[in-house]
Amino acid sequence: MIDEPEQDAPPITELSKGQRRVLGTLLEKAFTTTEVYPLTVKALTAGCNQKSNRHPLTEYSEDDVLEVLDQLRQLGLAAVVHTETGRTERFRHYMRKRFTLSEPQLAVLTELLLRGRQSIGDLRARASRMVPIESLDELRGALRGLMEQKYLQANAALERRGVEVDHNFYAASENKKLAWDSGLDEADDRRSVETAPRSQTAPPTVHHAPASTAPQRGPHLAELQASSSALAQLRDENAELRGRVDSLEHEVARLKSLVDDLIRDLRG
After folding, report:
1. Is 27 exposed, middle or buried (0-12, 13-18, 19+ CB in 10 A)?
2. Domain 17-99, what architecture?
3. d(CA 225, CA 190)
4. Residue ranges of the domains in the chain?
5. What would the pLDDT profile of 191-209 be if each residue is shown by its tens digit?
6. Can you tell me the distance from the alpha carbon of 167 to that of 113, in angstroms, rounded to the nearest whole number?
7. What is the pTM of this model?
């Protein structure tokens, strides 16, 4: 038996730190550990406090998590599942009932609730362990939909290199609004000017210094552009590697949780 959320529940515009962590953990485990989901309070507490894919790290007790679960149930964001044996209550999220979201959007919000502000390159690598996101363009499409619903904020246009995004469920007192970074726009504008094609009209006649003293700007500019491209590639590769490490750490945590459950069942 599952308790259902109220149909006329008020819209949700902010969540506390504890609510974000507990809800984010329920979402993550629903995506990645279906064999043990819904979660017991013990498993949910361990998930909230795990060392991988979490920022900041926490040390919640089971009583802390139970208190937050009561709050989420009142908001229609979580529910208790009463098992047939009645021995252990388990808990699940109700995000799909309270929000209209695609699966990539739900995975994106999960990562942002668990980690907060991050680049879209990192976000794609981390969210892809839950839902396939084939390209940055696909990710940007999901992000635009979240921005239209006021669930997401960004510090620059999503097409800009280096843009960072975050969820928009902070309380006003947390002062977590992203300031618009005009420097990202200026950097892209400089790159556009540097790579713009030369005009086909004949340039005006000018007097040049002797060839032996003229600065060699062309090769230097080409080297800078090549270095910039190589750096961008390294950043993308680094983001992908971080995502793989996060996935491995999560898999270790999942296996440990399974072993703990088996030990508990054997002792019971």
Report:
1. buried
2. Orthogonal Bundle (1.10)
3. 12
4. 17-99
5. 555 555 555 555 555 555 5
6. 7
7. 0.72
